[in-house]
Design brief:
Strand order of the largest sheet: 1-2
Helix content: 40-55%
Largest sheet: 2 strands, antiparallel
Oligomer: single chain
CATH class: Mainly Alpha
Order of helices and strands: HHHHHHHHHHHHEEHH
Radius of gyration: 21 Å
Shape: globular
Distance between the termini: 28 Å
Number of domains: 1
CATH topology: Glycosyltransferase
Structural class: mainly alpha
Number of helices: 14
């Protein structure tokens, strides 16, 4: 009886220690299958998909090096080494890693991949690319004053276009992840982002009248706290309110990106911008769609959700009516249910290139890896 009691209590203890134990095993298998499929899609030259867009390769490489199935200190597989070698051949004199254009998008995703590899041999390239991202921060008005709508943000790489939340968050992520490489000074004095201007830009993309100086910002229940694509642009059609104001509509993926950007900028969890976006996300919590956009950008949305809620340290997301959601379990189960027999994922809705299985699979694998890494160790 004593032995039986010990076995039973040990089982209870294990369940208490690892409430996600079963899902963790399923995640590892799904990640391994996803990365194995991605490996089959690598071209002979070392890149994935379109060589003119190094971001495809960078995302596939990030998924590969973050795989929890890899042992600490384990040598990178040959195809991964080849992929990084190809990626670095695309670095330009200005430090950016790109080809025809979209220099920020391609460089930011490349820096994230290179930094995730943890290889000292990549550091010099990372430092140069990091500087390229910082140099692309907008400052069109008086120096140091974010007086133009796009100031403080970062766009695709052309200051004749506009800044946007997607490229800004990718650049911030790359800059933050590469910070540890420059902090000891061995690469000399390095520039930094104007973080105050960045926060101003981020605030100008949020529906929150108290902190957004744009006329369109609204605290109406449907939009308050959520984010839009840019300070003058939403990907969702707007509706005129009874007050006569026509706000830019908040939507899911940009709201997770907005939360993540506020965290990168080191705003307190008590900051009203952080509180407001979490409330919007709780009201619009969904695994079935990118709120406001349906199936458009769904895998980007899943990846952004995993990153933002992990970085927030949220175990259970507060929903309306006092309910909570175990977002890790919900997102994991949704992604597992969508994996195809060959190990890949694909979005039937082709907007933003998600009908490209390489892109959607990389997003899905990275989301699962983020969930896996964020599970609390009790």
């Amino acid at each position: 009886m004593k032995t039986l009691f010990l076995l039973l209590t040990a089982g209870i203890a294990c369940a208490d220690v690892s409430p996600y134990a079963s899902l963790q095993q399923e995640m590892k298998l799904a990640i391994a299958r996803g990365n194995a499929w991605l490996a089959t899609q690598q071209k002979a030259e070392g890149h994935w998909d379109d060589p003119e867009t190094p971001a495809f390769s960078a995302l596939a490489l990030t998924a590969a090096v973050r795989d929890p199935n890899r042992k600490a200190g384990e040598e990178k597989p040959a195809h991964v080494k080849k992929g990084f070698t190809w990626l670095l051949t695309n670095q330009k004199e200005d430090g950016g890693i790109y080809n025809k254009g979209l220099s920020v998008y391609n460089t930011a995703t490349s820096v994230t991949a290179l930094a995730s590899a943890g290889d000292e041999a990549y550091e010099a390239a990372i430092v140069r690319a990091r500087k390229h991202l910082i140099n692309n921060q907008w400052d069109k008005g008086e120096k140091g004053k974010p007086d133009e709508a796009n100031d403080g943000g970062i766009g695709y790489g052309s200051k004749n276009d506009r800044s946007d939340m997607s490229n800004t968050h990718l650049a911030l992520e790359a800059i933050v992840l590469s910070q540890k490489i420059i902090q000891d000074g061995k690469h000399g004095e390095q520039p930094d982002l104007d973080w105050g201007a960045a926060v101003q830009f981020i605030s100008r993309c949020q529906n929150l009248e108290e902190t957004n100086d744009r006329d369109w910002a609204s605290n109406d229940p449907k939009n308050k706290g959520g984010f839009v694509y840019g300070p003058n642009e939403s990907k969702v059609e707007s509706e005129k309110l009874p007050s006569g104001k026509t706000p830019l509509r908040s939507y899911g993926s940009m709201s997770y990106v907005g939360l993540l950007s506020l965290i990168y900028a080191k705003l307190s969890p008590d900051d009203q911008r952080v509180v407001a976006v979490k409330e919007w996300l709780g009201k619009n919590y969904s695994m079935d769609e990118n709120p406001g956009l349906g199936a458009q950008g769904l895998y980007y949305y899943y990846s952004a959700m995993a990153k933002a809620l992990s970085a927030s340290g949220i175990d259970k997301l507060s929903l309306e009516g006092g309910k909570t959601a175990d977002w890790r379990k919900d997102l994991c189960e949704k992604l597992l249910s969508k994996q195809r027999e060959n190990g890949s994922w694909v979005n039937d809705n082709g907007r933003w290139m998600e009908s490209n299985a390489v892109l959607s699979t990389a997003y899905a694998v990275m989301a699962l890896e983020q969930i896996y890494d964020s599970i609390p160790q009790r």
